[in-house]
Amino acid sequence: MADRFGIRAFERRDTEAVVALWEDAGLTRPWNDPRADIERKLAVQPELFLVAEDLSPGAERIVGSVMAGYDGHRGWLYYLASASDLRGTGIGRALVTEAERLLLAMGCPKVQLMVRAGNEQVLGFYDTLGYERFEVGNTGKRLIHDV
Q1: How does pLDDT run across 79-113, given as a tens digit for each residue?
Q2: pLDDT band at 1 (very low <50, low <70, confident <90, very high)
Q3: How far, CA to CA in Å, does 62 sit from each of 14, 86, 113?
Q4: Domain residue spans in the chain?
Q5: Is 5-128 CATH 3.20.20.70?
Q6: Which of 16, 33, 52, 58 could make an S-S bridge to 146, C-beta 3.0–4.6 Å?
């Protein structure tokens, strides 16, 4: 990533750029309002919501994001995204590394994430970062309906 990209905590002014990044990366879903997800994250451990920005003169823009959280038992990663024109440049790796560093500083012993079924490219990315695949089923229940 050299000196071209910087990682910092999300700021409200980043909202539209981050939502556009998530849409471009295919992370948004009709049943989740991404702006509501951002507001919820800003209310809980906002320091674990990170963005990567391109610091090149004249090209300042958000080029990556990750949301992390720690519940006292394990950490989680959500919304990892990098700009499609910059994939393979180390942005995702740098965001995960920084999120892991922050989680470890909080005493987090383990970090997990969910990847949608069939997304082998993303699973391969996490394989290279040392993440292990689990054969588990996920369940969920919506408490607040965004749409």
Answers
A1: 999 999 999 999 999 999 999 999 999 999 999 99
A2: low
A3: 7, 11, 22
A4: 5-128
A5: no
A6: 33
52 residue type, one letter? A
For the stretch 20-47, pLDDT in tens is 999 999 899 988 899 999 999 999 999 9
* Cα→Cα distances 101→11, 15, 32, 50, Å: 20, 24, 28, 12
SS3 per residue for the chain: CCCCEEEEECCHHHHHHHHHHHHHCCCCCCCCCHHHHHHHHHHCCHHHEEEEEECCCCCCEEEEEEEEEECCCCEEEEEEEECHHHCCCCHHHHHHHHHHHHHHHCCCCCEEECCCCCCHHHHHHHHHCCCCCCCCCCCCCCCCCCC
pTM (predicted TM-score): 0.91
Identify residue 142 by its one-letter amino acid code.
Answer: R
